[in-house]
Design a protein that fits this description.
Blueprint lengths: L3 H4 L9 E9 L8 E3 L1 E5 L2 E2 L5 E4 L6 E2 L10 E6 L8 E6 L2 E9 L4 H7 E9 L2 E8 L1 H11 L4 E5 L4 E2 L6 H4 L4 E2 L7 E5 H13 L14 E3 L15 E7 L18 E11 L19 H7 L11 E8 L3 E4 L3 E7 L10
Parallel strand pairs: 15-16
Antiparallel strand pairs: 1-2, 1-16, 1-21, 3-4, 3-20, 5-6, 5-12, 7-8, 8-9, 10-11, 11-12, 13-14, 15-19, 17-18, 17-21, 18-19
């Protein structure tokens, strides 16, 4: 594999730096995300990210874009719609903008006990965890919009322990997450989507947005003042560095009091065909970008038939991050190998 120093003179410095250009959360797994200027980064991921998911009301198995592409037509927003000024998660169906459903964004156990079907076992990737299943006043509208029975689930108190590359056997400690597939955070590089788009347009295909890959943190790419395409493949440790205006992080409740947030980069993000789905229309392209990616991005020895885009990470401390904050690559490796979520 080509080393980072071979890709660009930018990597002549010991710790290459770039900056965060976008922060995205997806409050409901597989539904439309929200772009933020700043947010809290916890050890379980970004605040509100994938705290909810959609399940089959009978089997309680999770539902995603993979089998129900129309889920991406469910727009999410965090709004102060409650009379007491508390934050609410509001869901709207893009083809029916006049309708919406709202639930508390930080529900108390008392509220959940009174307003849901109770705490139940749900299944995600063949593994069980617990979740509060909402009542029909919420679920009936979601089901009507998508055209099949669905139920909204909110992550329960039982820890969902990381598996695979993040398992206690792999990293020597127990870490947890809400409803992401594998890890709390996915980081993507702007230069990599630009390079992929150059290949798509050369085939007379339309460019796609990085949103299709559903990253949480997007960093600036480019040889001059960013980082080269696909250099993220070798990241091992990175950190987010507080800017001058963030020097008061220690006063923020979420913050560790430190001016940097280090993260372990545990593995590459191996891809299915979800990026073939246009998040604006829910239409699935029969070939792209899958066909292009499999021709040159099947680079991980752990699961050779799947292409890679983005890196999956684990924050080591908590803090506040914002667009424009410096992002530094601290350590690289050629030894990344994907481990299945067993």
């Amino acid at each position: 594999m080509v080393g980072l120093s071979d890709l660009s003179p930018f990597f002549g410095s010991p710790n290459p730096q770039t900056e965060i250009t976008d922060i995205r959360i997806y409050p409901i797994k597989s539904c439309r995300g929200i772009s933020l200027r700043s947010t809290a980064l916890t050890k379980q991921g970004l605040d509100f990210d994938r705290n909810w998911m959609i399940v089959d009301p009978d089997t309680k198995n999770f539902q995603t874009i993979r089998e129900t592409s129309e889920l991406t037509l469910l727009d999410t927003a965090l709004e102060n719609t409650h009379a007491d000024g508390s934050l609410a998660l509001t869901v709207r169906f893009r083809p029916s903008p006049g309708e919406s459903v709202s639930v508390p964004a930080r529900p108390t156990e008392e509220w959940l006990t009174e307003n849901t079907q109770g705490l139940q076992d749900v299944t995600i990737w063949g593994n069980q965890t617990d979740a509060w299943i909402y009542n029909d006043d919420v679920n009936s509208l979601l089901s009507k919009w998508i055209g099949k029975p669905l139920a909204l689930a909110y992550k329960g108190p039982t820890p969902r322990v990381l598996r695979g590359n993040g398992s206690p056997e792999s990293i020597g400690r127990e870490e947890r997450m809400n409803f992401p597939d594998m890890m709390p955070i996915q980081i993507a590089n702007e230069a990599s989507i630009e390079e992929l788009n150059s290949r798509l347009t050369a085939k007379s295909e339309k460019e796609i947005t990085i949103e299709r890959f559903r990253p949480n943190i997007i960093v600036k790419g480019g040889d001059q003042d960013g980082i080269p395409a696909w250099s993220e493949d070798e990241w091992k440790k990175v950190q987010i560095i507080a800017s001058e205006r963030n020097s008061s992080w220690s006063s923020v409740p979420w913050s560790s009091g430190q001016s940097t947030i280090p993260m372990d980069v545990l593995c590459r993000c191996l891809r299915c065909q979800v990026p073939n789905v246009d998040p604006e229309t829910a239409e699935k392209h029969p070939k792209e970008p899958w066909d292009t990616l499999v021709k040159y991005r099947r680079i991980d020895e752990g699961l050779k038939f799947k292409p890679c885009f983005g890196m999956l990470c684990l924050p080591l401390i908590e803090g506040v991050i914002e667009v424009g904050t410096k992002f530094e690559i601290m350590e690289t490796t050629k030894d990344h190998k994907f481990m299945k979520n067993h």
